[in-house]
Amino acid sequence: MLFATLDAGGGLSVANPATDDTLATIKAYGTEEIARIIERADSVRPAWAARTAKDRAQVLRRWHDLMIAHQDELAALVTAESGKPLAEARGEVAYGAAFIEWFAEEGKRAYGETIPTFAPGKRVLTIKQGVGTCAGITPWNFPVAMITRKVAPALAAGCAMVVKPAEATPLAALALETLAHRAGVPEDLFRVVPTLDPVATGALFCNHPLVRKLSFTGSTGVGRKLMQQAATNITRLSLELGGNAPFIVFDDADLDAAVGGLMASKFRNSGQTCVCANRILVQDSIHDAFVRKVEERVAALVIGNGAEPGTTIGPLINQAAVEKVEALVADACAAGATVLAGGARAEAGAGFFEPTILTGVTPEMAVTSSEIFGPVVAVIRFADEAEAIRIANDTPYGLAAYFYARDMGRIWRVMEALEYGMVGVNDGIISTEVAPFGGIKHSGLGREGSRHGLDEYLELKYCLMGGIDR
Q1: Do 230 and 256 belong together in one domain?
Q2: Contact call for residues 286 and 253 (beta carbons, < 8 A)
Q3: Domain of 337?
Q4: pLDDT > 60? residue 1
Q5: β-bridge pairing 12-15 and 22-26
Q6: What are phi and psi of 196, to 5 degrees?
Q7: Does 172 score more than 80 pLDDT?
Q8: What's the pLDDT tens digit per position in 411-465?
Q9: What is the Cα–Cα distance from 194 to 162, expressed in whole angstroms?
Q10: Is 434 helix (H, G, I), strand (E, B) or coil?
Q11: How many whole angstroms separate alpha carbon 90 and alpha carbon 3?
Q12: How many domains does the chain have?
């Protein structure tokens, strides 16, 4: 097996959301043990930081290569514990490995600078150094990629990292830990610590004196609590929080391209991503034609166990998720929305919800103010560009936004006006290791991926050198 030895004695049980069968019972760590793991990580960190960036890069590259070599096994784990279709799981493994490859190279470019001096006999320069021992908290919807895009830059920068994976999806995380250690990452430097007490573990990460940085991906509510707790220790934070992404289709859009982009953005992982299209804004004159095209594509989706060939829509992560989506659809219908497709639980099993299209949706409905996290297309009509921008920005969230248009003036105006950290123009998939991923407003702080993702794990040190003329 790729993950740690199973512990059948009262540990953390992991279930398949498609079948509700128990996959494994694994060791669950208490906060006292996690505190000792943090201390050991910090004790081995200086030796790792002292290695050259090229040396660290070679280790990371071996980790990347092992992930690719075990892509099928990792994907099977992801599908089993998260429910996403196997093809998507394979894509996630490749995406997660790409962050390791990227930061292996980017770690060699943690450049400082020399600054023209302000006085004779003095020289001014800066260097960048790893922030120290770090902690990460990752969600269940991308159990591989959410770990690698935190751990890879931390290790590349010379830091140590202790990660708490989501309780629902720890198996892929443990497999990544195993592969990292096989690649040469010191065992105490990077640890994965599943737990049955996530609240206490989050508080520990915020308050432990050796943890210099915490990176969290999850809900805005939890992020707010972590931010409050981190204030005591002045712990540095990266927070990737909730979203409420608008997907705007203007009357000059390529409709077929827009429909394809919507299907990719909305139904990936059954709508359970933080950057999924959440509110679909369609201009009046093309509304009916656009909806007809979406209906045709939704009818072709295949609901089922993610491990079965041909499945495109897997289960939601648990019953609470199903009940939330069901309640949002019911609320919208009670307020005047119309169900064009789906609208109910699917026959495939208790964890499944039908791909759904709602029309007649208004900005006042709960389905437009909540992060749906399910396979629901909620369509809102709009009259003009100004109204579309007003509706799109009328949210405390600011993670991702999408729009389709061909007029270059409109593209620039809307791109600049949308209050989001990421904007997809004529494309429904924006995630890549080479670009900065992150939001503004209640959607978080900091960026992951790109060169900016490395800076999240580096401190800038200013050095003044005197006595040069003596």
Answers
A1: no
A2: yes
A3: 245-425
A4: no
A5: antiparallel
A6: -95, 0
A7: yes
A8: 999 999 999 999 999 999 999 999 999 999 999 999 999 999 999 999 999 999 9
A9: 10
A10: coil
A11: 18
A12: 2
| 81, 88, 240, 371: the active-site residue | 240
Is there a contact between 421 and 440 (Cβ–Cβ < 8 Å)? yes
4 located within any domain = no
> What is the pLDDT at residue 226?
98
Q: What angle do CA 126, 131, 133 make, to 5 degrees?
A: 160
- In the annotation, is 296 catalytic? no
pLDDT in tens, 383-392: 999 999 999 9
Q: Is-contact 324 375, C-beta < 8 A?
A: no
3-state secondary structure of 343: coil
- Mean per-residue pLDDT for 382-401? 98
**Gap between the Cα atoms of 211 and 39, Å rounded:** 9
DSSP 8-state symbol, 105: H
Would you say residue 5 has pLDDT above 50? no
CA angle 380, 350, 84 (to 5 degrees): 70
**How far apart (Å, rounded) are the C-alpha atoms in residues 138 and 142?**
8
| In-domain check, residue 435 | no
Residue 468 has pLDDT above 70, yes or no: yes
Listed in sequence order, the residues at least 6 apart from 57 whose beta carbon sits closer than 8 Å to its beta carbon are 104, 105, 107, 108, 156
Residue that has been written with the tokens 């009940």 in this structure: 323
